[in-house]
Amino acid sequence: MGFYWHTFAELIATPFEHAALIWGIVPLYFGLLLNEMTSAKASFRTAIQTGFSFLWAGAQWLWPFFVPHASHGKYLEWEAMLPVNLAVTFLVLALGVVALVSGLRKKFPKHLRFLGHTRFANYFMITLFPIQAHIGMDWTWDRLIVIALFAVPIWLVLHFGLMPLRNR
């Protein structure tokens, strides 16, 4: 279990070790707290919050491909993005657009009402952030296991820890 704890701590701490990533990760933490302060019921408000968080994370993951890299003045090559990174980025962006539009229109598409229930979605964006941010952390089975393994304990801590402040 110590190995998994170390890997989890690495996922959480790494974005704060790179100054360029801090402005991308901090809004996700605020989004997590804001979403956890709202009701567990599906709502258009939470769909807007989730849509913004997903779009923010996806934009942060794509940003390095549109600005010159500080170390060598060149843009990152699209080929450098692993297929799994690319798939996750575009899935997050697509879900973000659908959630945001659904929240603004106050109407969910058929079978996508779950986008209004996604209070805990920012946890996944936070833990995926260093893997997706092109800083040398690749997708591994250990990291995927850690994200899934710690999801329930973190959710329980946030759910019960913030319960006194929720819906005031």
Search tags:
168 residues
Structure characterization notes:
The protein is mainly alpha-helical. It has helices at residues 2-13, 19-36, 44-62, 83-105, 121-132, 141-161. It is globular and about 40 Å long. The model has no long low-confidence stretch (mean pLDDT 83).
Topology:
Elements: H1 2-13, H2 19-36, H3 44-62, H4 83-105, H5 121-132, H6 141-161
Helix pairs in contact: 1-6, 2-3, 2-5, 3-4, 3-5, 5-6
Number of strands: 0
Strand content: under 5%
The backbone outline, from C-alpha atoms, is globular
Tell me about the largest β-sheet: none
Measured between the Cα atoms of the first and last residue, the distance is 38 Å
Stretches where pLDDT is under 50 for at least 5 consecutive residues are none
Helical segment tally? 6
| Helicity range | 55-70%
pLDDT averaged residue by residue:
83
Structural class determined from secondary elements: mainly alpha
The secondary-structure element order is HHHHHH
- Determine Rg (CA atoms, Å): 16 Å
